[in-house]
Amino acid sequence: MFEARLVQSSILKKVLEAIKELLNEATFDCSDSGIQLQAMDNSHVSLVSLNLRSDGFDKYRCDRNLSMGINLASMSKIMKCAGNDDVLTMKAQDNADLVTFMFESQNQEKVMDYEMKLMNLDQEHLGIPETDYSCVIKLPSQEFARIVRDLSQFGESVVISCTKEGIKFSAGGDIGNANIKLAQTSNVDKDEDAVTIEMQEPVSLTFACRYLNSFAKATPLSPQVQLSMSADVPLVVEYKIGDIGHIRYYLAPKIED
Amino acid sequence: KNKQASITSFFTKK
Lengths: 257, 14
Fold this sequence. Notes:
The complex is a heterodimer of chains A (257) and B (14). Chain A is mainly beta and 257 residues long. Helix content of chain A is 15%, strand content 47%. In chain A, α1 (9-19) runs antiparallel to α2 (72-79) and α3 runs antiparallel to α4. Chain B is rod-shaped and about 30 Å long. The mean pLDDT of chain B is 90. β10 (126-127) of chain A pairs antiparallel with β2 of chain B.
């Protein structure tokens, strides 16, 4: 028996918005420790890794490990039926081919049950090596979304360069060139407005804009985003999900041919 | 010219 209750169903709605542009389907691995998802996009350029810890749920029970193969477009249709203030409960029997999403209004006067068929998906998990990143940058998530959106107008790629002085995003193409520099903030009223840089060595890497734009769909999950970079390895873009977990996107760089 | 790398060339299958 698997049962997970979340008073704020809006969290799962936002998680789905954050992954459904990159992934058509994915396996939700449920265990005693929580719900995990790891999947590559169709082109195998990026990897999504989601972790929702069991202690972050309002109620959580998972007697046996369960892998739920889910069509994300179908799940998205169901999640759209939930009000932001509804209480969500996901339920599945052991070895089930169905998962039930139950939404209850706050006053419990309306109860909705949606059953969704599960799929058998080939499970392919990648091992992600522990890495000490040369640069770890934290910045407001809305700022990051704005920058990648703005630079996408100039070209398919963006160069992200980090030095002690700051972080620079650059793009160029037919219409010209664009550079956006952010310096580390010295003092801000709110922590979420801060730009912080921890740098061991300067790094400059090139990435495809379209993936960064897809990652930015996670913006509503967190006021801050963390970028981790080292030479010649994938970028990590991480959004914390309240007290319950995180979503990480790994993006392979563009390298000289 | 830059070429897009694949994520599988950095992370190996478990």
